[in-house]
Amino acid sequence: MRTAILSLLFGALLAGAAPGATDDEAAARKTLMALAGAFSNDGFKLRDGNWTGAIQPKASLLVQVHLYAGNQYWFSAGASRQAKKLSLSVFDETGALMKSEPYQEEAKGDDGPKAAAGFAPAVSGAYFVRIQETKGDAASFSFSYSYK
Fold it and tell me: Which of 52, 77, 97, 119 has a beta carbon 3.0–4.6 Å from 142's, enabling a disulfide?
């Protein structure tokens, strides 16, 4: 049941990634790519594609991902400047919070906030990444992940 609900949330998230991105969505993607690009310098491959949509203050969005034991992952998110702070958390399929390496950078000037979570699963399977706007106003966000 929980997986079905989380999968529905994931579907709703993808529905927000329509073609013809707004300026805010483009700004969020630019912020995301600035952060995710840094991980490629450490040998991580950026996953083809990203998710873009709207996020509300104090709201949480979930993205289901299938991860493989033995790989390392960096999940990255960026938002338009209306958001001030983001956070990412990783959960297993039972909803247990997994230990990850967090990174956060608050919005500065015209740059939106950035957040990342580094994670290396011990077991292959379904995981969920929670994207939260912890401070700011309604904004656009973009999310992707890198692996090696």
Answer: 52
